[in-house]
Amino acid sequence: MVYLPSTRHLLRAKDLVDARYREPLDVPTLARVAHLSPAHFSREFRRVFGETPHQYLLTRRLERAAAMLRSTDHSVADICFDVGLASVGSFTTSFRRVYGMTPTEYRAAHPPARAARVPTCVLQAYARPHSSSFREDRRVASG
């Protein structure tokens, strides 16, 4: 078996959180991915990444929830469950702690961007070919 430094193992667990944040992930599961004991995994994860595995997972979930609040019209409860959280109350409390406002207030403060209206003349000018390859007006030399 090839020895890998523990930070490489920790990155595997971190990548798992990034990819599967919706799923119920706990420290023992992440520790198995990193090939470390749960206690050693938690200590090393915090030392290397500056936060506990649970904090990292919650941060990923809240970031995704914020993105969904900005870009969808799903209910706060649906978003809570979509990102892998089980309690709307805990979700709201955690969201307020991180973003300084409730999910509903956050959505109101970040309305979806409106599509910019581009004048027709600009669209037509942009759609024109710059160097035409049509040679209809040239005579073809017959040989």
Pick out its properties.
143 residues; mainly alpha; Arc Repressor Mutant, subunit A
3D structure, described in words:
It is a single chain. The model has no long low-confidence stretch (mean pLDDT 87). This protein is mainly α. The protein has one domain: Arc Repressor Mutant, subunit A (Orthogonal Bundle). The chain contains 8 helices and no strands.
Tell me the fraction of residues in β-strands, as a range. under 5%
Largest sheet: none
Number of separate strands: 0
Q: What's the structural domain tally?
A: 1
How much helicity do the residues have? 55-70%
Structural class comes to mainly alpha
The appropriate CATH architecture is Orthogonal Bundle
The ordered string of helix (H) and strand (E) elements is: HHHHHHHH
**Overall pLDDT confidence:** 87
What's the CATH first level? Answer: Mainly Alpha
Count of separate DSSP helical elements: 8
